[in-house]
Structures are given as structure tokens and as C-alpha cells.
Design brief:
This protein is mostly beta strands and 254 residues long. It contains one helix and 13 strands. The longest helix has 18 residues.
């Protein structure tokens, strides 16, 4: 189970936040602080995740151990977040993020020969294994800049993930006399759903072309470790949820 270069992603996010802090003296407050804001964002979860899932099933009256290598690539997310000012430059809020992607699962197994022992026939095939993540983020915002045309915030806090993952349960195959080879057929799957608590940290830069309406960009890293229990023919697994989100969209303040 790996997540694409998590260390470098965290360093990149930290670098962007440091740049925003260094640029802060350039911004001059031209109005009272924003009382609240609403962000509607679309973009990409720009990290991929993979994990291996062992599966045991029966073929030709023998037990078969198969390996299933899951990969969840970059995919789209939608986020809605809102906050309200509770001090001069401090706001609290919450956000909801939805991410879904048709993951890929590569199945490899050795199918026993129907007549001879120790003469397994290798098969390999690919199937989809969709994943859905819904995360609720509790956010503490620090306003780095708040002017007529610009609102820059950094934020972070805990995240609650609701996680669904398809897992392969059994594999079918085809063979024919003299049964020296076998080919992958289909994979039966089940969807498991679990919850986990993680964290998030990020930054948002919004440019306003009227008092209340503008556009902005978001960079956020979130992560949680989800425990998928053993069920049916699968062992228990711990899987990464979340990742680096990069996107933009509508910004409203009031």
C-alpha cells in the first residue's frame, strides 16, 4: 500500500503556504474583515494510491491463493466549504468533499490442473474496482489577506472520511481439454464501506471582481488510514484515503 510521494507533497504544500506568508506585506486592508465566505470548488485529486489484496477461493476442489493489485489513479473531486469570522483574522467552518474513481484491479492466480497435482496454470486479468470517498472537514482558517479584491486563507483541522471500496471475492476462468492452460474469465466483487478520522491542511486564494463574488484556487492535502475488515475470501487491509487536491471555482463572501 503506497501513496504517490506523500513526503514531497507535504513539502510542496508547506512551500506554498510559506510563499503566501512572505507575500502578506504586499496586501493592504481596504475594508473591514469578511464576516463569512462560501467556496464551491471542483478539481482533481492529484495523487494515486495502490494496495495489494490477497484472495482465496476454490477451483478444481483445491484452494487457490490469488493476488489482487489495486490502483486508484488521479480523479475528479467536488468540494463545498463555508466559514464565519469569529475574531479579527480567525474563522471557523466546515467543508464536504466528494471523490470517486473507477479503480483498476489486476488479478493473478495459479489454477490447479483438474487431473494432476502441482501443475498450476497461471492466469492474469484486469477488472474495475471503484472507490468513493466522502470527507467532512472541520476547518480553522487564518486570514492572511482580506481586501476589496483579495482573500487569502490558510486552514486545517480534522477530517472524517466515509470510504467505499470494491474488493475482488472470487475469480472465474476458462479451460479446455487437455487443460494445459487456463485463461482469466471474470471477477466477482463486493463493496465494503468504512469510516476513519484523519486530517487536512491547505490554502485558498480568492480574487473578487465585485463586493461579494469572485473566483479562487485551492490546494489541500488530506489523509486518513481506513481499516477494511476481513470478509468472505479477503484478508483485512489498511488503505490510504484522501490525497492532494488542486482545484478552483466560485468564491462568495458576505
Amino acid at each position: 500500500m503506497t501513496c504517490t510521494q506523500p513526503g514531497s507533497l507535504r513539502i510542496g504544500v508547506a512551500g506554498m503556504l510559506a510563499t503566501a506568508l512572505l507575500a502578506l506585506p504586499m496586501f493592504v486592508r481596504a475594508q473591514p474583515p469578511s464576516r463569512g465566505f462560501l467556496y464551491i470548488t471542483g478539481g482533481a485529486q492529484a495523487t494515486s494510491t495502490d494496495f495489494s489484496d490477497p484472495v482465496i477461493f476454490v477451483a478444481n476442489a483445491e484452494s487457490v491463493s490469488a493476488s489482487v493489485d489495486h490502483t486508484v489513479d488521479i480523479g475528479p473531486f467536488v468540494d463545498v466549504s463555508a466559514g464565519v469570522l469569529v475574531a479579527s483574522r480567525f474563522a471557523v467552518g466546515a467543508g464536504v468533499t466528494h471523490f470517486t474513481q473507477d479503480g483498476e484491479a489486476v488479478v493473478r492466480a495459479g489454477i490447479p490442473h483438474p487431473f494432476f497435482f502441482d501443475r498450476d496454470r497461471p492466469i492474469e486479468g484486469t477488472t474495475t474496482a471503484p472507490r468513493t470517498e466522502v470527507a467532512v472537514h472541520l476547518q480553522a482558517h487564518w486570514l492572511l489577506a482580506d481586501s476589496d479584491t483579495l482573500l487569502v486563507t490558510i486552514f486545517g483541522g480534522p477530517s472524517l472520511f466515509k470510504f467505499e471500496q470494491d474488493r475482488v471475492q472470487e475469480v472465474s476462468f476458462q479451460d479446455a481439454f487437455p487443460f494445459e492452460t487456463a485463461t482469466f474469465g471474470t471477477a466477482s466483487k463486493m463493496t465494503q464501506s468504512e469510516s476513519a478520522v484523519g486530517f487536512h491542511v491547505g490554502a485558498d486564494v480568492a480574487a473578487f471582481f465585485s463586493t461579494h463574488i469572485g473566483v479562487g484556487g485551492l490546494v489541500r492535502f488530506s489523509q486518513a488510514m481506513v481499516d477494511l475488515p476481513s470478509s468472505g475470501n479477503n484478508d483485512a487491509q489498511t488503505v490510504d484515503a484522501g490525497g492532494l487536491h488542486v482545484g478552483g471555482g466560485l468564491r462568495i463572501r458576505f
